[in-house]
Amino acid sequence: MKTILLATLIAMPTLATEIKEVRLITLDPGHFHASLVQKKMFPQVNPVVHVYSPGGPDLEQHLKRIELFNTRADSPTRWEEEVYTGPDFLEKMIKDKAGNVVVISGNNAKKAHYILACIEAGLNVLADKPMAINPADFDLIERAFIEARRRGVFLLDIMTERHEITTILQRELSMQPTVFGVLDTGTPDDPAITKISVHHFFKEVAGKPLIRPPWFFDVKQQGEAIVDVTTHLTDLIQWECFPDQALPHREAQVLYAKRWTTAITPEQFQRATKLAEFPDYLKPSVGKDGAIHIYSNGDFIYSLRGVHAKVSVEWRFEAPPGTGDTHFSLMRGTKAALVIRQGKEQNYKPTLYVEKRTKLSDAEFERALRLAITKINARIPGVDVTKCACGWEVIIPDHYKNGHEAHFAQVAERYLGFLAAGKMTEWEVPNMLTKYSTIMQAYHISRSLR
């Protein structure tokens, strides 16, 4: 029965009743992403937001962030937070049904359960990644998608990186055959696609030092790297390599996966959490050096429709001054490679390069490239290219570089569009299932390979 229903999910677009006014519910906010959905106001969203939480520091930090948005000098928001706290917060939320869209971003060990409960109550869900951090969670998410189909509600995870301008242009250029050719298939030893992401435990958000909840350092609650940030990277591989296509999960095969730890000292933990000591659930991770050792790094190689790709995620404690999280992305075509770099040479800003792989002269290739850029300018005006040592750098106007935090509003706007239209793009649900199926394969293999 489950197999038949999942096949139906792949074959049909998601349809639901059109929603003209959105009333938000925030459920147990524990991650700063929950607040970033509300960094701006939306015309179709009621300013009253109902928050249900067990209470505690996670909730306090969330409400402080919303208050910062409401009181900022530039374009302040007008959110009114109606808060319920208590041990029965989930049951109370389902009973009250005070809204029609639930935003879920917090402790990942609870997320799959929360999502399924909301869907079964007939509520739409916009969930932060990852929706599942282990195979048992993935089973719940599969059930949630089946229930969402039955009840005519939408479940979507927050994929902010689709809105990063260098990634958008990498995708656009890959669809220009005169420049890119066709996508290479690569090999396990030399993948055609590589995505590497480096993150940091200690950082600033909305201009303030981010206070991490202590559970963020527990992989049983946050999830290991191989099932966390990899959701973004795997999503981008699907979105860029096979645009607007539904990808059944059987077409993704993980060939290799590994995981390794990051050491966090007690002093670093205190800086990030403001707590003087490790909680009991982290003490089994304490090594002889006195630091906790977290499986916050991982990579895997897989094939998708015969195309070989590598995904890698690394977490460090803090970025050097003037830097931040970084991203490397390679798409290799038969005529050119499209490469995003974000290192010292790029002033730690993501920069897209086009590297020639054809026997055409530089002058001939540049003519083809400029014609392709002219086509792209019809949708994304102002983009240009200039010759550089490795090929051509794509010049992007600054107004497109709106930053990671702004991308949450862009995801929300897209989701609101689905609600208003009463339908989602037909490939979105099957590709979410394929994405999570892929990282669950990596989860298993990373434990079996030594």
CATH superfamily caption of the largest domain: Dihydrodipicolinate Reductase, domain 2
Query: Roughly how many Å apart are the termini?
Result: 37 Å
Specify the number of helices.
14
Q: Given this structure, which CATH class of the largest domain is correct?
A: Alpha Beta
Roughly what percent helix? 25-40%
User: What is Rg?
Assistant: 22 Å
Which spans of ≥5 residues are poorly predicted at pLDDT below 50?
Answer: none
* Beta-strand content: 15-25%
The helix/strand class is alpha/beta
Strand order of the largest sheet: 10-11-12-7-13-14-15-17-16
Give the averaged pLDDT, no decimals: 94
What's the total count of β strands? 17
Your description of this structure?
- By secondary structure, this protein is an alpha/beta fold.
- The protein folds into 2 domains: 2-158, Rossmann fold; 162-404, Dihydrodipicolinate Reductase, domain 2 (2-Layer Sandwich).
- 36% of the residues lie in helices and 24% in strands.
- It has helices at 2-11, 33-36, 57-71, 89-96, 108-120, 135-151, 165-174, 177-180, 219-222, 230-241, 266-273, 362-377, 404-421, 428-448; strands at 24-27, 48-53, 80-85, 101-104, 124-127, 155-157, 193-202, 204-205, 208-209, 252-264, 292-304, 307-318, 326-332, 336-341, 351-356, 384-388, 391-395.
- It has a 9-stranded mixed β-sheet.
- Helix 1 packs across helix 6, helix 5 (108-120) runs parallel beside helix 6 (135-151) and helix 10 packs across helix 14 (428-448).
- The longest helix is centred in the C-terminal third of the chain and has 21 residues, at 428-448.
